[in-house]
Specification:
The structure holds two protein chains of two kinds.
Chain A (H helix, E strand, L loop, with lengths): L10 H4 L17 H13 L3 E5 L5 H5 L10 E4 L5 H15 L4 E7 H7 L1 H10 L4 E6 L39 H6 L5 E6 L3 H14 L5 E6 L3 H4 L6 H10 L6 E4 L2 E4 L10 H4 L10 H21 L15
Parallel strand pairs in A: 1-2, 1-3, 3-4, 4-6, 5-6
Antiparallel strand pairs in A: 5-7, 7-8
Helix pairs in contact in A: 2-8, 4-6
Chain B lengths: L30 E5 L9 H5 L5 E4 L3 E4 L9 H5 L5 E5 L4
Antiparallel strand pairs in B: 1-4, 2-3
Classes of the chains: A alpha/beta, B alpha+beta.
Chain lengths: 318, 93
Protein backbone atom coordinates (compact mmCIF):
# COMPACT_ATOMS: atom_id res chain seq x y z
CA UNK A 1 0.00 0.00 0.00
CA UNK A 2 1.38 3.35 -0.95
CA UNK A 3 1.87 5.93 1.79
CA UNK A 4 -0.55 8.81 2.02
CA UNK A 5 0.60 11.55 -0.31
CA UNK A 6 0.91 14.99 1.24
CA UNK A 7 0.92 18.45 -0.25
CA UNK A 8 3.95 19.77 -2.13
CA UNK A 9 5.78 22.49 -0.22
CA UNK A 10 4.83 25.95 -1.44
CA UNK A 11 8.47 26.93 -1.76
CA UNK A 12 8.58 24.99 -5.02
CA UNK A 13 5.88 27.35 -6.37
CA UNK A 14 8.33 30.24 -5.98
CA UNK A 15 10.78 28.51 -8.34
CA UNK A 16 9.17 29.89 -11.49
CA UNK A 17 12.28 30.14 -13.63
CA UNK A 18 14.79 27.55 -14.80
CA UNK A 19 18.05 26.89 -13.00
CA UNK A 20 20.72 28.68 -15.08
CA UNK A 21 23.59 26.77 -13.49
CA UNK A 22 25.17 23.63 -14.88
CA UNK A 23 24.41 20.62 -12.69
CA UNK A 24 27.96 19.76 -11.68
CA UNK A 25 29.65 22.86 -10.23
CA UNK A 26 32.68 23.07 -7.97
CA UNK A 27 31.15 23.78 -4.53
CA UNK A 28 31.77 21.60 -1.48
CA UNK A 29 29.12 18.96 -0.73
CA UNK A 30 26.54 20.50 1.59
CA UNK A 31 27.53 24.08 0.76
CA UNK A 32 24.92 26.62 1.85
CA UNK A 33 26.12 29.07 -0.78
CA UNK A 34 25.30 26.68 -3.63
CA UNK A 35 21.68 26.38 -2.50
CA UNK A 36 21.42 30.18 -2.25
CA UNK A 37 23.09 30.79 -5.60
CA UNK A 38 20.77 28.38 -7.43
CA UNK A 39 17.76 29.73 -5.55
CA UNK A 40 18.18 33.42 -6.46
CA UNK A 41 17.78 33.22 -10.28
CA UNK A 42 15.05 30.60 -9.98
CA UNK A 43 12.99 33.06 -7.92
CA UNK A 44 13.99 36.44 -9.39
CA UNK A 45 14.30 35.38 -13.03
CA UNK A 46 17.24 34.72 -15.31
CA UNK A 47 17.41 38.31 -16.60
CA UNK A 48 19.48 39.48 -13.63
CA UNK A 49 23.05 40.73 -13.97
CA UNK A 50 25.30 39.54 -11.17
CA UNK A 51 28.41 41.43 -10.17
CA UNK A 52 30.70 40.07 -7.54
CA UNK A 53 34.17 39.82 -6.13
CA UNK A 54 36.78 37.14 -5.43
CA UNK A 55 34.99 34.84 -3.01
CA UNK A 56 33.74 31.27 -2.78
CA UNK A 57 31.16 32.14 -5.43
CA UNK A 58 33.68 33.58 -7.88
CA UNK A 59 35.24 30.35 -9.27
CA UNK A 60 31.77 29.23 -10.35
CA UNK A 61 30.31 32.59 -11.35
CA UNK A 62 33.42 33.70 -13.24
CA UNK A 63 33.92 30.53 -15.28
CA UNK A 64 37.16 29.00 -16.51
CA UNK A 65 39.11 29.78 -19.67
CA UNK A 66 36.46 30.52 -22.31
CA UNK A 67 33.75 28.39 -20.79
CA UNK A 68 31.10 29.16 -18.23
CA UNK A 69 29.29 27.31 -15.46
CA UNK A 70 26.03 29.24 -15.90
CA UNK A 71 23.92 31.23 -18.38
CA UNK A 72 23.69 34.47 -16.38
CA UNK A 73 25.57 37.69 -17.05
CA UNK A 74 28.41 38.15 -14.58
CA UNK A 75 30.84 40.98 -14.03
CA UNK A 76 33.81 40.19 -11.83
CA UNK A 77 35.34 43.08 -9.93
CA UNK A 78 37.65 43.91 -7.03
CA UNK A 79 36.72 43.62 -3.37
CA UNK A 80 37.36 47.31 -2.70
CA UNK A 81 34.93 48.46 -5.38
CA UNK A 82 32.08 45.97 -5.48
CA UNK A 83 29.22 48.37 -4.78
CA UNK A 84 30.81 51.11 -6.91
CA UNK A 85 30.88 48.75 -9.91
CA UNK A 86 27.26 47.78 -9.35
CA UNK A 87 26.43 51.50 -9.21
CA UNK A 88 27.96 52.01 -12.63
CA UNK A 89 26.09 49.06 -14.12
CA UNK A 90 22.76 50.11 -12.61
CA UNK A 91 23.18 53.70 -13.84
CA UNK A 92 24.06 52.53 -17.35
CA UNK A 93 20.94 50.34 -17.56
CA UNK A 94 18.80 53.21 -16.30
CA UNK A 95 20.24 55.66 -18.84
CA UNK A 96 19.96 53.17 -21.70
CA UNK A 97 16.35 52.49 -20.72
CA UNK A 98 16.93 48.77 -20.17
CA UNK A 99 14.74 47.23 -17.49
CA UNK A 100 17.17 45.01 -15.66
CA UNK A 101 18.08 43.92 -12.17
CA UNK A 102 21.66 44.34 -11.00
CA UNK A 103 22.55 42.00 -8.14
CA UNK A 104 25.78 42.64 -6.28
CA UNK A 105 26.56 39.22 -4.79
CA UNK A 106 29.34 39.16 -2.23
CA UNK A 107 30.58 37.40 0.83
CA UNK A 108 30.83 38.90 4.28
CA UNK A 109 34.50 39.79 3.77
CA UNK A 110 33.63 42.23 1.00
CA UNK A 111 30.40 43.48 2.54
CA UNK A 112 31.51 43.91 6.14
CA UNK A 113 35.24 44.58 5.90
CA UNK A 114 36.94 45.45 2.63
CA UNK A 115 34.10 46.90 0.58
CA UNK A 116 32.02 48.36 3.38
CA UNK A 117 32.97 51.92 2.52
CA UNK A 118 31.43 51.95 -0.91
CA UNK A 119 28.55 49.71 0.20
CA UNK A 120 27.64 52.40 2.69
CA UNK A 121 28.16 55.08 0.04
CA UNK A 122 25.89 53.31 -2.45
CA UNK A 123 23.22 53.00 0.25
CA UNK A 124 23.52 56.70 1.04
CA UNK A 125 23.15 57.63 -2.66
CA UNK A 126 20.20 55.19 -2.86
CA UNK A 127 21.46 53.48 -6.01
CA UNK A 128 18.89 51.22 -7.69
CA UNK A 129 20.38 47.74 -7.26
CA UNK A 130 20.20 44.76 -4.92
CA UNK A 131 23.14 43.93 -2.69
CA UNK A 132 23.16 40.37 -1.38
CA UNK A 133 25.72 39.42 1.26
CA UNK A 134 26.04 35.71 1.98
CA UNK A 135 27.46 35.42 5.46
CA UNK A 136 29.69 32.43 6.13
CA UNK A 137 31.46 34.29 8.93
CA UNK A 138 34.93 34.40 7.49
CA UNK A 139 37.14 34.46 4.42
CA UNK A 140 36.43 30.84 3.53
CA UNK A 141 37.77 30.89 -0.02
CA UNK A 142 41.28 31.97 0.94
CA UNK A 143 41.59 29.55 3.87
CA UNK A 144 39.22 30.38 6.70
CA UNK A 145 40.53 33.69 8.05
CA UNK A 146 38.46 35.75 10.47
CA UNK A 147 36.24 38.56 9.22
CA UNK A 148 34.15 41.26 10.84
CA UNK A 149 31.15 38.97 11.14
CA UNK A 150 33.02 36.07 12.77
CA UNK A 151 31.37 35.62 16.18
CA UNK A 152 33.05 35.63 19.57
CA UNK A 153 35.01 32.47 20.35
CA UNK A 154 35.11 31.06 16.82
CA UNK A 155 38.38 29.45 15.76
CA UNK A 156 39.73 30.41 12.36
CA UNK A 157 43.24 30.13 10.94
CA UNK A 158 44.02 33.68 12.08
CA UNK A 159 42.31 33.31 15.48
CA UNK A 160 43.34 29.77 16.43
CA UNK A 161 42.77 28.04 19.73
CA UNK A 162 46.00 27.93 21.69
CA UNK A 163 47.26 28.18 25.25
CA UNK A 164 46.64 31.94 25.46
CA UNK A 165 43.96 32.83 22.90
CA UNK A 166 40.84 30.79 22.51
CA UNK A 167 39.35 31.78 19.20
CA UNK A 168 38.30 35.30 18.29
CA UNK A 169 38.17 37.49 21.40
CA UNK A 170 36.11 40.25 19.81
CA UNK A 171 32.42 40.46 19.13
CA UNK A 172 30.91 40.35 15.65
CA UNK A 173 29.40 43.34 13.91
CA UNK A 174 25.73 43.48 13.00
CA UNK A 175 25.95 44.30 9.30
CA UNK A 176 22.26 44.11 8.42
CA UNK A 177 21.27 46.48 11.21
CA UNK A 178 23.93 48.96 10.11
CA UNK A 179 22.51 48.88 6.60
CA UNK A 180 18.93 49.28 7.84
CA UNK A 181 20.04 52.40 9.68
CA UNK A 182 20.81 53.99 6.29
CA UNK A 183 17.00 54.06 5.92
CA UNK A 184 17.20 52.36 2.53
CA UNK A 185 13.98 51.16 0.85
CA UNK A 186 14.59 47.54 1.81
CA UNK A 187 16.97 45.73 4.15
CA UNK A 188 16.43 42.21 5.45
CA UNK A 189 18.08 39.17 6.97
CA UNK A 190 17.30 35.67 5.71
CA UNK A 191 18.57 32.16 6.06
CA UNK A 192 18.38 28.87 4.22
CA UNK A 193 16.19 26.94 6.66
CA UNK A 194 13.29 29.25 5.85
CA UNK A 195 13.27 29.32 2.05
CA UNK A 196 9.70 30.59 1.82
CA UNK A 197 10.75 33.66 3.79
CA UNK A 198 13.90 34.03 1.65
CA UNK A 199 11.89 33.87 -1.60
CA UNK A 200 9.46 36.52 -0.39
CA UNK A 201 12.34 38.77 0.65
CA UNK A 202 14.05 38.34 -2.73
CA UNK A 203 10.85 39.37 -4.52
CA UNK A 204 10.36 42.31 -2.16
CA UNK A 205 13.94 43.41 -2.79
CA UNK A 206 13.31 43.24 -6.52
CA UNK A 207 10.27 45.45 -6.04
CA UNK A 208 12.09 47.86 -3.70
CA UNK A 209 14.91 48.21 -6.24
CA UNK A 210 12.59 50.45 -8.27
CA UNK A 211 12.77 52.96 -5.41
CA UNK A 212 16.44 52.53 -4.59
CA UNK A 213 18.92 50.39 -2.72
CA UNK A 214 17.95 46.95 -1.40
CA UNK A 215 20.16 44.94 0.96
CA UNK A 216 19.84 41.27 1.89
CA UNK A 217 21.98 39.56 4.51
CA UNK A 218 21.77 35.78 4.09
CA UNK A 219 23.20 33.41 6.67
CA UNK A 220 24.91 30.63 4.67
CA UNK A 221 26.91 28.17 6.81
CA UNK A 222 30.21 26.74 5.57
CA UNK A 223 30.66 23.04 6.22
CA UNK A 224 34.42 23.08 5.56
CA UNK A 225 35.30 26.18 7.54
CA UNK A 226 33.06 25.66 10.54
CA UNK A 227 33.58 21.93 10.92
CA UNK A 228 30.17 20.28 10.96
CA UNK A 229 28.80 17.32 9.03
CA UNK A 230 27.57 18.33 5.54
CA UNK A 231 24.04 17.06 6.21
CA UNK A 232 23.64 19.56 9.08
CA UNK A 233 23.71 22.72 6.92
CA UNK A 234 19.96 23.35 7.18
CA UNK A 235 19.88 22.28 10.84
CA UNK A 236 22.61 24.82 11.69
CA UNK A 237 20.54 27.57 10.02
CA UNK A 238 17.41 26.45 11.87
CA UNK A 239 19.10 26.45 15.25
CA UNK A 240 20.68 29.86 14.54
CA UNK A 241 17.16 31.23 14.15
CA UNK A 242 15.74 29.36 17.15
CA UNK A 243 18.46 30.65 19.49
CA UNK A 244 18.11 34.24 18.19
CA UNK A 245 21.71 33.98 17.04
CA UNK A 246 20.50 35.14 13.64
CA UNK A 247 17.03 36.70 13.96
CA UNK A 248 14.95 37.11 10.82
CA UNK A 249 13.60 40.58 10.19
CA UNK A 250 13.03 43.11 7.43
CA UNK A 251 13.18 46.88 7.37
CA UNK A 252 11.10 48.80 4.82
CA UNK A 253 12.27 52.43 4.74
CA UNK A 254 14.01 51.92 8.07
CA UNK A 255 10.97 50.48 9.84
CA UNK A 256 11.99 47.17 11.35
CA UNK A 257 9.55 44.26 11.53
CA UNK A 258 10.31 40.74 12.71
CA UNK A 259 9.35 38.20 10.05
CA UNK A 260 9.79 35.24 12.38
CA UNK A 261 9.33 35.50 16.13
CA UNK A 262 10.75 32.77 18.34
CA UNK A 263 8.48 32.34 21.36
CA UNK A 264 10.93 30.51 23.61
CA UNK A 265 14.49 31.14 22.40
CA UNK A 266 16.83 28.27 23.19
CA UNK A 267 20.23 28.85 24.84
CA UNK A 268 23.05 29.44 22.37
CA UNK A 269 24.61 26.12 23.38
CA UNK A 270 22.08 24.24 21.25
CA UNK A 271 23.54 26.07 18.27
CA UNK A 272 27.24 25.85 19.13
CA UNK A 273 27.21 22.14 20.00
CA UNK A 274 26.84 21.24 16.32
CA UNK A 275 29.88 23.19 15.19
CA UNK A 276 33.51 22.33 15.69
CA UNK A 277 34.75 25.94 15.63
CA UNK A 278 32.94 26.46 18.95
CA UNK A 279 34.00 23.10 20.44
CA UNK A 280 36.45 24.62 22.97
CA UNK A 281 34.01 27.17 24.47
CA UNK A 282 33.59 26.97 28.24
CA UNK A 283 30.49 27.96 30.23
CA UNK A 284 31.88 31.48 30.70
CA UNK A 285 32.56 31.85 26.99
CA UNK A 286 29.04 30.69 26.23
CA UNK A 287 27.76 33.31 28.65
CA UNK A 288 29.68 36.06 26.85
CA UNK A 289 28.29 34.86 23.51
CA UNK A 290 24.79 34.63 24.98
CA UNK A 291 25.00 38.15 26.42
CA UNK A 292 26.12 39.45 23.05
CA UNK A 293 23.20 37.78 21.29
CA UNK A 294 20.75 39.10 23.90
CA UNK A 295 22.20 42.60 23.51
CA UNK A 296 21.74 42.57 19.74
CA UNK A 297 18.26 41.14 20.02
CA UNK A 298 17.38 43.76 22.60
CA UNK A 299 18.41 46.56 20.22
CA UNK A 300 16.34 44.94 17.48
CA UNK A 301 13.34 44.75 19.80
CA UNK A 302 13.72 48.42 20.69
CA UNK A 303 14.00 49.45 17.06
CA UNK A 304 11.03 47.41 15.93
CA UNK A 305 8.88 49.64 18.16
CA UNK A 306 9.41 52.26 15.44
CA UNK A 307 6.96 50.34 13.30
CA UNK A 308 4.17 51.66 15.49
CA UNK A 309 4.82 55.16 16.68
CA UNK A 310 8.10 56.75 17.58
CA UNK A 311 8.85 56.79 21.29
CA UNK A 312 11.49 59.29 22.27
CA UNK A 313 13.99 57.99 24.80
CA UNK A 314 13.53 59.12 28.38
CA UNK A 315 15.86 61.92 29.33
CA UNK A 316 18.84 60.92 31.46
CA UNK A 317 18.12 63.60 34.06
CA UNK A 318 14.72 62.22 35.06
CA UNK B 1 30.26 5.67 -11.06
CA UNK B 2 28.30 7.90 -13.40
CA UNK B 3 26.43 6.78 -16.47
CA UNK B 4 28.89 8.82 -18.54
CA UNK B 5 26.14 10.53 -20.44
CA UNK B 6 27.77 13.92 -20.02
CA UNK B 7 31.44 13.26 -19.52
CA UNK B 8 32.95 12.48 -22.88
CA UNK B 9 36.05 14.49 -22.03
CA UNK B 10 38.31 14.35 -19.03
CA UNK B 11 38.06 17.18 -16.54
CA UNK B 12 35.42 19.86 -16.25
CA UNK B 13 35.61 21.01 -19.86
CA UNK B 14 33.06 21.08 -22.59
CA UNK B 15 33.40 21.46 -26.35
CA UNK B 16 32.17 24.44 -28.36
CA UNK B 17 28.81 22.81 -29.07
CA UNK B 18 28.02 22.65 -25.40
CA UNK B 19 27.72 26.10 -23.83
CA UNK B 20 28.10 25.02 -20.20
CA UNK B 21 30.85 23.22 -18.34
CA UNK B 22 29.93 20.28 -16.17
CA UNK B 23 32.06 18.67 -13.53
CA UNK B 24 31.70 15.00 -12.62
CA UNK B 25 30.46 15.76 -9.10
CA UNK B 26 28.72 12.39 -8.84
CA UNK B 27 32.20 10.93 -8.51
CA UNK B 28 32.76 12.77 -5.20
CA UNK B 29 30.01 10.84 -3.46
CA UNK B 30 30.85 8.46 -0.60
CA UNK B 31 27.24 7.82 0.41
CA UNK B 32 24.31 7.35 -1.91
CA UNK B 33 20.76 8.53 -1.10
CA UNK B 34 18.18 5.76 -1.52
CA UNK B 35 14.53 6.88 -1.63
CA UNK B 36 11.89 4.58 -0.14
CA UNK B 37 8.93 5.08 -2.51
CA UNK B 38 6.44 3.68 0.01
CA UNK B 39 7.44 6.06 2.80
CA UNK B 40 7.70 9.15 0.55
CA UNK B 41 4.75 11.51 1.10
CA UNK B 42 5.76 13.79 -1.79
CA UNK B 43 6.23 16.91 0.33
CA UNK B 44 9.19 18.14 -1.73
CA UNK B 45 11.45 19.04 1.21
CA UNK B 46 14.38 17.10 -0.31
CA UNK B 47 13.99 18.90 -3.65
CA UNK B 48 13.71 22.24 -1.90
CA UNK B 49 16.78 21.90 0.34
CA UNK B 50 19.06 19.99 -2.07
CA UNK B 51 21.96 22.42 -2.72
CA UNK B 52 22.57 20.98 -6.18
CA UNK B 53 18.85 20.77 -7.00
CA UNK B 54 19.15 17.22 -8.34
CA UNK B 55 15.99 15.73 -6.82
CA UNK B 56 13.65 15.04 -9.72
CA UNK B 57 9.91 14.50 -9.52
CA UNK B 58 8.74 11.10 -10.70
CA UNK B 59 5.10 11.12 -11.87
CA UNK B 60 3.90 13.14 -8.87
CA UNK B 61 4.52 10.17 -6.58
CA UNK B 62 8.07 10.46 -5.26
CA UNK B 63 11.44 12.11 -5.80
CA UNK B 64 14.63 10.52 -7.03
CA UNK B 65 18.17 11.95 -7.15
CA UNK B 66 20.16 12.40 -10.33
CA UNK B 67 23.16 10.27 -9.38
CA UNK B 68 25.33 11.76 -12.13
CA UNK B 69 25.64 14.94 -10.06
CA UNK B 70 24.57 14.12 -6.47
CA UNK B 71 27.51 14.99 -4.18
CA UNK B 72 26.13 12.84 -1.36
CA UNK B 73 25.96 15.55 1.31
CA UNK B 74 22.95 13.90 2.97
CA UNK B 75 20.83 17.02 3.49
CA UNK B 76 17.84 15.28 1.84
CA UNK B 77 18.05 12.33 4.26
CA UNK B 78 18.38 14.64 7.26
CA UNK B 79 15.50 16.95 6.28
CA UNK B 80 13.03 14.28 5.13
CA UNK B 81 10.14 14.42 7.64
CA UNK B 82 9.33 10.70 7.15
CA UNK B 83 12.94 9.42 7.06
CA UNK B 84 12.21 7.99 3.64
CA UNK B 85 15.76 8.61 2.41
CA UNK B 86 18.67 6.56 3.70
CA UNK B 87 22.34 7.11 2.95
CA UNK B 88 24.06 3.87 1.91
CA UNK B 89 27.85 3.56 1.49
CA UNK B 90 28.84 3.96 -2.13
CA UNK B 91 31.08 0.87 -2.03
CA UNK B 92 28.03 -1.39 -1.83
CA UNK B 93 26.97 -0.53 -5.38
Amino acid sequence: MAAKKGKLTKVLDHLKHEDPFSKGVAFCPGCGLELLLRFIPQVMGNDIVITGTPSCSAPVLLGQNNQSWHKLSYFGTLMTGAAANATGLARYYRKAGIDNTVVCFNGDGTAADIGFGNLSGAAERNEPFIYICYDNEGYMNTGIQKSGTTPFGATTTTTPKGSVHKGKNLRRMNLALKMAMHKIPYAATATLSDLDDLAKKLLKAKEAKERGFAFLHVFAPCTTGWGYAPENTIEVCRRAVKTNYFPLWEAVDGKIRMTKTVKKPKPVKTYTELIKKFAHLTEEDHQILQDDIDYEFCILGGLSVLEGECQLPVSAQD
Amino acid sequence: MSSNKYFKHEGPWSDANDPLMVSDTGDWRTKRPIVDKEKCIFCGFCAMYCPIQVMEMVEASHFTPDLDFCKGCGICAKECPKNAISMEPEGDF
